[in-house]
Amino acid sequence: DAARASLEGDGRTYVEATLDDGVNALTVGLRIKGWTSSQPLSGKPSFKVDIDRFVPGQRYYGLEAFDLHAELTDPAAMSEWLAYRLFRDQGLPASRTGWAWLTLGDDDYGFYTLVEKKDDKLIDAWWDDSSGSLYESSSESWPCDLDNPGCDCFEVDEQGTNDDRGDLEALCVAATAGSLDDVRALVPWSPFLGFVATEIAIGAHDHYAGFSGNFYLYHQPRDD
User: Fold this and answer.
1) Sign of the alpha-carbon dihedral angle for 103, 107, 112, 117
2) Is omega for the bond preceding 149 within 30 degrees of 0, making it cis?
3) Which of 100, 129, 160, 165 has a beta carbon 3.0–4.6 Å from 133's, enabling a disulfide?
C-alpha cells in the first residue's frame, strides 16, 4: 500500500500505522530512523514511532514517542540498556529503555531495543522546573558546540512555556567571548563533567564528547 511504498522509498516521511501490542491498538506515525546507519525494509531498519503524529494528544503508557533500534552491531541488545542505565544511576538525565519483538505486516523483524524519546515527559522526570526549552544539536550542522555563532546549530526540540532562545544565545556568548567562570555560572559543572566522562567511558563517539553531535541541552528557567 501507499504507506509501505513510502517506507520503501526514502523512508523519512512519517506514515500512518497501527501500533498493536496485543492490548492496545493505536494509530501512530512511523518512519525509518538513521542516516548512514539506515537500512531498507528489506534489511532490518531502525524506526521512529510518533504516538500523537495523527491523533493529537494521544499517549502510549505516557509516552508521546519512542525509537526502535535494530541493534545490528550488538546481537545481545545489551549495550544501550547498560549505557543509558549508567547515566541514570548517576543522576544524569537519560532515556529509559526496554525491548520489543517487532512485526510489520507479515514481516517478522525480530528483537529491538526500545528507547524513550527526549520529550516533555523526560523533562518532567528530571528537572524541578519543566517550563524550559530542550535544544537538540542539528544533524545538518556538524560539529555543533557552544562556540557556534548565535548557537545556530541548535534546534528547538521542545519549546518551553517560560523560555526563549535568548537564554541559549547568552550561553553561547559566554562560551565564545567570556571566561570559564562565565560558562560555569550557566552550566551545572559537576553533572556536566560526569556526563562527558561517562560518554568517554562507554565509547559514545557519536555524541558530545566525540563528534559533537546527537546531544541535547535543557534550560531550566528557575535558576538559569
Assistant:
1) negative
2) no
3) 160
Residue 101 DSSP code: E
**Could you tell me which residues come within 8 angstroms of residue 204 by beta carbon, excluding any fewer than 6 positions away?**
83, 210
- Any residues with CB less than 8 A from the CB of 123 and at least 6 apart, and which? 130, 132, 134, 158, 218
The whole-angstrom separation of Cα 101 and Cα 27 is 19
**pLDDT, tens digit (0-9, with 9 covering 90-100), for 116-164:** 998 888 999 999 999 999 999 976 777 888 887 778 899 998 899 988 8
72: nearest Cα among 104, 40, 50: 40
Residues recorded for the chain: 224
Structure confidence at residue 55 as a pLDDT band (50, 70, 90):
very high
Contact 52, 66 (CB under 8 A): no
SS3 62: coil
Residue 27, number of CB atoms within 10 A of its CB: 14
Dist. CA 208–CA 216, nearest whole Å: 9
pTM value > 0.85: yes
CA distance between the termini of the chain: 49
Nearest to 130 by CA among 91, 95, 162: 162
On the 0-12 / 13-18 / 19+ scale of CB atoms within 10 A, 57 is exposed
**Alpha helix positions (H), 25-119:** 79-89
CA distance 95 to 116: 5
